[in-house]
Backbone:
C-alpha cells in the first residue's frame, strides 16, 4: 500500500522574535539543517522588512530574488504563507492570487491560508458566500499554476473538521485542499484533534507542525482558535507519533512545516520530527 512520505520545512516565523530579515532567516534555517522553508509574503512595502528586522518577503520584489537567496544557502521553498482574510475579498483575492504566482515562480506547490476574522456585520450565510467568491477566484489562478491553496484550522469556522471541510468544499476544485495545523486544532478544543485529522486526511496536502506547551494548553485550550507559533516539536502536548501515523494514510508527499517561536526551538524541532518520520 502506498504511504505518505515527508519533508520537514521551517516556517520563517521562527526568526520573528529575533528581529531577523528574510535572508538572515534563510541562512539560519540552512545552518540548522533545514532544506525547505515556508516564507511569509506581503503586498506593498513594509518598513521592518525593508530594514531587515522582519522576515516577510514583499511580493513587489522579483519572485526570482527569493529563489536566488534560497539558492545561495542551499534551501528550497516548500510553500508560501499567504494567509488572507477570505471574508474580505478586496484584500484576499489580490493577495492570494499573487502568492500563487510567486509560489509557482519559486517552484513551491502550496499556498497556505485560513478564513481569518469574520466582520461583525456579516452573518454566517453571507460569510460563506463571500468566501466562495474569494476561493473561486483563487482556484482559477491556482489551476493555471498547479499550486494548491491549503486551508488550515485557525478561525471560528475552521476550528472543527466539519467547518473546515465546508469551506474547502465551497468551490469544487482539486486546487483547494487542507493545511492541517496541529497546534491550532488542539488549542481550539472543539473536538479530539486526532479524530478530526482522520476525518480530513484525504484532503491534507500540507501540515503546520506546531506543538503547544503544557502551560499554554492549560491557559488557552478552548478559549482561542489558534496561535501564531508554538514551542519546539516534542516539547509540548502534541502526540507526534499519532500525527505521523495518521498522515501516512494520505498517500502523498506531505510537508511538515515547523511553526515555532525561536531559533533554538527550530533546531530541536527538526531533530524530533526526523527521528519519527522518513524525511528528506
Residues:
Amino acid at each position: 500500500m502506498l504511504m505518505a512520505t515527508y519533508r520537514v520545512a521551517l516556517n520563517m516565523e521562527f526568526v520573528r522574535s529575533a528581529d531577523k530579515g528574510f535572508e538572515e532567516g534563510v541562512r539560519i534555517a540552512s545552518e540548522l539543517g533545514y532544506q525547505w522553508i515556508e516564507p511569509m509574503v506581503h503586498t506593498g512595502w513594509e518598513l521592518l522588512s525593508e530594514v531587515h528586522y522582519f522576515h516577510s518577503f514583499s511580493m513587489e520584489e522579483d519572485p526570482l530574488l527569493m529563489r536566488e537567496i534560497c539558492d545561495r544557502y542551499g534551501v528550497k521553498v516548500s510553500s508560501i504563507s499567504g494567509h488572507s482574510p477570505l471574508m474580505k475579498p478586496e484584500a484576499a483575492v489580490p493577495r492570494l492570487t499573487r502568492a500563487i504566482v510567486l509560489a509557482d515562480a519559486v517552484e513551491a506547490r502550496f499556498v497556505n491560508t485560513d478564513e481569518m476574522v469574520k466582520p461583525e456585520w456579516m452573518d454566517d450565510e453571507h460569510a460563506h458566500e463571500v468566501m466562495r467568491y474569494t476561493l473561486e477566484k483563487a482556484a482559477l489562478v491556482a489551476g493555471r499554476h498547479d499550486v494548491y491553496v491549503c486551508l488550515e484550522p485557525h478561525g471560528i469556522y475552521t476550528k472543527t473538521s466539519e467547518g473546515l471541510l465546508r469551506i474547502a468544499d465551497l468551490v469544487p476544485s482539486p486546487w483547494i485542499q487542507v493545511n492541517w495545523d496541529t497546534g491550532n486544532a488542539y488549542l481550539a478544543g472543539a473536538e479530539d484533534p486526532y479524530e478530526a485529522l482522520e476525518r480530513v486526511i484525504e484532503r491534507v496536502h500540507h501540515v503546520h507542525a506546531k506543538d503547544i506547551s503544557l502551560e499554554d494548553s492549560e491557559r488557552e485550550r478552548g478559549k482561542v482558535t489558534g496561535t501564531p507559533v508554538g514551542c519546539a516539536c516534542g516539547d509540548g502536548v502534541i502526540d507526534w507519533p499519532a500525527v505521523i501515523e495518521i498522515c501516512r494514510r494520505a498517500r502523498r508527499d506531505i510537508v511538515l512545516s515547523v511553526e515555532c517561536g525561536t531559533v533554538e526551538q527550530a533546531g530541536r524541532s527538526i531533530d524530533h520530527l526526523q527521528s519519527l518520520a522518513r524525511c528528506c
The chain has eleven helices and eleven strands. The domain at 5-276 is CATH 3.20.20.150 (TIM Barrel). Residues 107 and 230 are 27 Å apart (CA to CA).
